[in-house]
Specification:
By secondary structure, the chain is α+β, with helices and mostly antiparallel strands. The protein has 4 helices and 6 strands, in the order βαββαβββαα. The longest helix has 12 residues. It is elongated and about 120 Å long. It starts with 52 loop residues before the first strand and ends in a 6-residue tail after the last helix. The relative contact order is 0.09.
Length: 217
């Protein structure tokens, strides 16, 4: 009797006796999907801008009345009050704060370098009042080469503080009794806290002549 045709999809004939069954072919694995592209890195955020607010108080109003044209602004930022004064007004304001408003402790004098600005430096005085338990800053903008008046006649501690500003920024104070370096060697070239002075820069000549070595920087 002739073999009947098997329907499609049916299994083939069984293997002969003693013959191992042939493994059925596995279907091909699906191709791996390409990884999704990584999102672009977010652009860096611009630096935060100091959003100062007007500082209005009896002291702020008194300063503006006593020093018209010399006190340019009285502002506050995060509870820290500061006065913006002209270079000629900074010392009279310091004296008034000491003698008439109980700010008799000169905490610090420092500077900030803005190389691209015409008035390159911000000169900052920080004073404190023990009776008020209050701190105030006096800020003034000066050009490179301008000699602000010394505060030594108002606060003796300004002697060393102004020398440090001179040593680090090159700002010379007119009338200072001993305007010389206080941290770096007297012969050192350059001013380390100016922004055009690299953080790893050294005075190679001074290191070679005084230490007898080549600087590792």
């Amino acid at each position: 009797m002739p073999d009947e045709q098997k329907p499609e999809g049916s299994e083939g004939p069984p293997p002969a006796q003693g013959e191992a069954p042939k493994p059925q072919a596995k279907p091909a694995a699906p191709a791996a999907k390409p990884a999704p592209p990584k999102p672009a890195a977010p652009a860096p955020k611009p630096p935060a801008v100091m959003m100062a607010m007007p500082w209005d108080s009896d002291l702020a109003r008194d300063l503006k009345e006593r020093f018209p044209g010399r006190v340019l602004a009285t502002s506050t930022y995060l509870g820290q009050n500061f006065i913006v004064a002209t270079p000629e007004g900074a010392i009279p304001v310091l004296e008034f704060l000491k003698l008439e408003a109980d700010f008799d402790y000169l905490v610090d004098i420092t500077a900030v370098d803005w190389p691209k600005r015409a008035e390159r430096f911000d000169l900052v005085y920080v004073v404190y009042s023990f009776p008020r338990n209050e701190r105030v800053r006096i800020k003034t903008a000066i050009a490179d080469g301008f000699h602000p008046q010394t505060a030594v006649d108002v606060h003796l501690t300004a002697n060393w503080l102004e020398r440090e500003v001179f040593d680090m920024f090159g700002i010379e104070f007119a009338g200072h009794p001993d305007m010389r370096r206080i941290l770096m060697p007297e012969e050192w070239e350059g001013y380390p806290l100016r922004k055009d002075y690299s953080i790893i820069q050294q005075d190679q000549r001074w290191v070679r002549e005084n230490l007898g070595i080549e600087s590792g920087q």
